[in-house]
Write a structure and sequence with these properties.
This protein is of the alpha/beta class. The protein is built from eleven helices and twelve strands. A hairpin with a 3-residue loop joins strand 3 and strand 4. The two termini are about 40 Å apart. Bound molecules: S-adenosyl-L-homocysteine and iron/sulfur cluster.
Length: about 375
């Protein structure tokens, strides 16, 4: 593939405004309360909340001055009490295949990545939910990152907002004509270790008077935090993807260590109980293809038996290597043979073409450059023990 491996956009770090509460990331109720707290007259609160919400989430304004249907005095009141702050784009890299990887800086100087993947009939933004990840799936680069904190709701919905800024998307009606038509929570972090903030951010993104993404265009991927899957179904209602990756507890215990706590049977029961499942709303099972580890015909047959009765689609992900990774990608023949078995059992089994490989934007490769400190094997083992 040709070029650009160097960032095409680099921003000089801007200091985040300290202190003032950020209106971005507040739920409608929180926004209403915040406006009340600074003295908005009671009978105006509902209207003002609607107006401010619309400026932020349909027009994408970045300053209070742009909220031109609000009186000067009210804008001044807002600007002395609040900020409107998004993550800052530190670098943007554009892959030869059109994939865009954003390195974003958030409060505390932390960095996270978001990846935009254009396709013919949709555009998907892959967003992060944590800086790093406390889980230690052995094939995943993010799991080796040391520093971890949960992203705030503002930082999560803010990733959608900066992508929309960059793609000049504000003001466009919802639907598949949009560049960012779909969201996947498949970047850095385990979204269900940060359920409240992920929920608030997604409810903001789904709000009809704002970004207005349909819940069916949002997919949350989890390694299998079973109790939180139940909550996500009830409180977010988005589509669910499970990082499955193995068909026996013995293998899954190693690849996806949270399996030691929530075994395959328990995980699949939570899937069966997930609300609104139908042929139109299927669970995606992600399955990373690791040579000689989980890619045999017997695995494919076991997989089909395990998920029997669950409306499902199997997403086969050729392993994306990273420096020092302990696995190899299965051969294409092997991946296709595996896909055929799953397919013949009646499940769609697309093989995910790696996107943005030249810029390390593919699944599991995300990890911020400033935080590359690798955990030691001993530390990983200790953390697994502690779970
Ligand atoms: N923590 C969540 C979401 C982020 S990972 C989860 O684990 O589901 C998004 C997907 O990429 C998961 O299915 C993950 O297992 C997969 N993945 C991680 N590392 C990978 C790699 N090196 N190659 C291919 N897929 C990988
Ligand atoms: Fe965390 Fe998901 Fe990577 Fe596992 S696969 S380490 S849960 S980001």
């Amino acid at each position: 593939m040709s070029t650009p491996l160097t960032p095409d956009v680099t921003t000089i770090p801007r200091k985040q405004e300290p202190g003032l509460p950020n209106l971005i990331g507040m739920t409608r109720d929180q926004l209403m309360q915040a406006l009340a707290d600074v003295g908005t007259p009671e009978k105006q609160i509902k209207m003002r909340t609607g107006q401010v919400w619309q400026w932020i989430y349909t027009k994408g304004v970045t300053s209070f001055d742009q909220m031109t249907n609000l009186s000067k005095d009210f804008r001044a009141l807002l600007s002395v009490n609040f900020q409107l702050s998004r993550p800052e784009i530190v670098t943007r890299q554009v892959s030869a295949d059109g994939t865009r990887k954003y390195l974003l800086r958030i409060a505390g100087g932390h960095e996270v990545e978001a990846v935009y993947i254009p396709e013919t009939n949709r555009g998907t933004l892959c967003i992060s939910s944590q800086v790093g990840c406390t889980l230690t799936c052995t094939f995943c680069h993010t799991g080796t990152q040391k520093l971890v904190r949960n992203l705030t709701a503002a930082e999560i919905v803010g990733q959608i907002m900066v992508a929309r800024d960059d793609l000049e998307e504000w003001g466009k009606p919802p639907g598949d004509k949009r560049l960012v038509s779909n969201i996947v929570l498949m970047g850095m972090g385990e979204p269900l270790y940060n359920t409240d903030n992920v929920r608030d951010a997604m409810l903001i993104a789904m709000d009809d008077a704002g970004i207005a993404l349909s819940r069916r265009r949002i997919t949350l991927s989890t390694s299998g935090v079973v109790p939180e899957i139940i909550r996500a179904g009830a409180e977010i209602g988005c589509m669910l993807a499970i990082s499955f990756h193995a068909t026996t507890d013995a293998v899954r215990d190693v690849l996806v260590p949270i399996n030691r706590k929530h075994k395959i049977a328990e995980l699949l029961q939570a899937c069966r109980d997930y609300p609104r499942l139908s042929n139109a709303e299927r669970i995606t099972f992600e399955y990373v293809m690791l040579k000689d580890v989980n890619d045999s015909d017997a695995d494919a047959r076991r997989l089909v038996r395990l998920i029997k009765g669950i409306p499902a689609k199997i997403n086969l992900i050729p392993f994306n290597p990273w420096p020092g990774s302990p696995y190899e990608r299965s051969s294409w023949d092997r991946i296709e043979a595996f896909a055929d078995i799953v397919n013949n059992a009646g499940y769609a089994s697309p093989i995910r073409t790696p996107r943005g490989e030249d810029i390390m934007a593919a699944c599991g490769q995300l990890k911020s450059a400033t935080e590359r400190a690798r955990k030691s094997r001993a530390q990983i083992a200790k953390e697994i023990e502690g779970k």
